[in-house]
Amino acid sequence: MEDNRRSLKIKEAAIGEVRVADEVVTIIAGLAATEVDGVSSMVGNIPNELVAKAGIKNLSKGVKVDVMDGIVTVDLNLNIKYGYKIPEVSRNVQERVCTAIENMTGLEVGTINVRIATVDMVEAGK
């Protein structure tokens, strides 16, 4: 089973190994981030409400994942909804992304950097 995409070994046993493509970790991070209350969307992505309605799962935009010596570093670029506390939302994003990656892959997360690109003012007009 050969694939040209980069992948990470997450488990090795007598019967074989388990590998996940880099993009899997990226998608896990993007999905976990967009589940946090106050996050409008990932930078370069369509808003969460449209993602849910259309069933689109392209959540790798606005997410960069690097793995060095088995430690995951995540850089997230996101848009926040108007009226939410940026430090609180950012902390919740970091916690949610860390938990999701560690639980789903078994990889250790070292750093999660959050960059707020803009404030979504659509929420303010309601």
Helix tally equals 3
Radius of gyration: 16 Å
Strand content: 35-45%
Order of helices and strands: EEHEHEEHE
End-to-end distance:
51 Å
Average residue-wise pLDDT: 83
Largest sheet: 4 strands, mixed
Percent helix: 25-40%
Identify low-pLDDT runs.
none
Which structural class is indicated by helix and strand composition?
alpha+beta
The outline comes out as elongated
Q: Give the tally of β-strands.
A: 6
Short description:
The protein is of the alpha+beta class.
How would the blueprint of this fold be written?
Blueprint: E1 7-13, E2 16-21, H1 22-34, E3 39-42, H2 48-54, E4 63-68, E5 71-81, H3 86-105, E6 108-120
Tell me what the structure shows.
The model has no long low-confidence stretch (mean pLDDT 83). The radius of gyration is 16 Å and the shape is elongated. The longest helix is centred in the last third of the chain and has 20 residues, at 86-105. By secondary structure, it is of the alpha+beta class. It is 32% helix and 37% strand. The protein has helices at 22-34, 48-54, 86-105, and strands at residues 7-13, 16-21, 39-42, 63-68, 71-81, 108-120. The strands form two sheets. Strands 3, 4, 5 and 6 form a four-stranded mixed beta sheet that branches. It has a two-stranded antiparallel ribbon with strand order 1-2. Helix 1 (22-34) runs antiparallel to helix 3. It contains three helices and six strands; from the N terminus they run E-E-H-E-H-E-E-H-E.
